């Protein structure tokens, strides 16, 4: 059960004060009857709420897939860079959305935005085995040697950990190489650090999918 003014404010129909005024003016109906108290409790799954003649379809969770651009940080607040919230419709701000995991400011591609804590846990906990796939342009010739190193797990001494085994696929190899890599972790700058440890530099990085 939820207060009707909270339900309506969560859905972006106005502030509590504005909704109180709407209730007073008879614009809010519950199961066909106008209500007098903005604190009236409703069951969002059973009760029919009408606001100004429009039926309110309550949503507890939101799930957005964003193709993140360069120059945006995977955060809801940052003093230096624009955040991913600027890339979504302001309507969703009412749900307190946040990014699942992170992409660096210069990394592009798939970013899930939600307010569902359970989904976030399922996607970000390494024990769940969700693999994040990236495509990358690498400065240097990627060979089967690097494929085997990634398969064993790359040691990253500067960060104090050994990365879990990763899948590395070579699409094109040369002085610059185009590759696809799948990792089940999401540590800070992880893909960049992994290639740094084998003497190479990531020039472009894009996340393309998440799967088991």
The ordered H/E elements are EHHEEEEEEEEHEHEEEEHE
| Helix amount | 10-25%
The average pLDDT is 94
**Unreliable stretches covering 5 or more consecutive residues:** none
What is the CATH C-level name of the largest domain?
Alpha Beta
CATH superfamily of the largest domain: Alpha-L RNA-binding motif
- By secondary-structure content and strand pairing, the structural class works out as alpha+beta
What does the largest sheet look like?
A: 7 strands, mixed
What's the number of structural domains?
A: 3
In CATH terms, what is the architecture of the largest domain? 2-Layer Sandwich
Task: Write structural notes for this entry.
The chain is an alpha+beta fold and 212 residues long. It folds into three domains: 2-55, Structural Genomics Hypothetical 15.5 Kd Protein In mrcA-pckA Intergenic Region, Chain A (Roll), CATH 3.10.290.10; 63-124, Pseudouridine synthase I, catalytic domain, N-terminal subdomain (Alpha-Beta Plaits), CATH 3.30.70; 126-211, 2-Layer Sandwich (Alpha-Beta Plaits). Helix content is 19%, strand content 32%. The chain contains five helices and 15 strands. Strands 7, 8, 9, 10, 13, 14 and 15 form a seven-stranded mixed β-sheet that branches. A hairpin with a 2-residue loop joins strand 5 and strand 6 (54-55). The mean pLDDT is 94.
């Amino acid at each position: 059960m939820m207060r009707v003014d909270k339900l309506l404010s969560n859905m972006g129909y106005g502030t509590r004060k504005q909704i109180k005024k709407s209730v007073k003016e008879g614009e809010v109906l519950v199961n066909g009857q106008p209500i007098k108290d903005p604190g009236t409790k409703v069951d969002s799954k059973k009760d029919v709420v009408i606001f100004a003649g429009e039926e309110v379809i309550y949503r507890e969770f939101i799930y957005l897939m964003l193709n993140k651009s360069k120059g945006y940080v995977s955060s809801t607040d940052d003093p230096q860079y624009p955040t991913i919230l600027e890339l979504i419709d302001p309507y969703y701000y009412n749900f307190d959305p946040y990014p699942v995991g992170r992409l660096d400011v210069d990394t592009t591609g798939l970013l899930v935005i939600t307010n569902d804590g359970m989904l976030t846990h399922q996607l970000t906990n390494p024990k769940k085995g969700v693999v994040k796939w990236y495509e990358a342009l690498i400065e240097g010739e990627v060979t089967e040697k690097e494929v085997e190193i990634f398969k064993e797990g790359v040691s990253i001494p500067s960060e104090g950990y050994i990365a879990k085994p990763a899948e590395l696929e070579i699409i094109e190899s040369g002085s610059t190489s185009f590759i696809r890599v799948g990792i089940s972790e999401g540590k800070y700058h992880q893909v960049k650090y992994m290639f740094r440890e084998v003497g190479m530099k990531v020039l472009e990085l894009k996340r393309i999918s998440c799967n088991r």
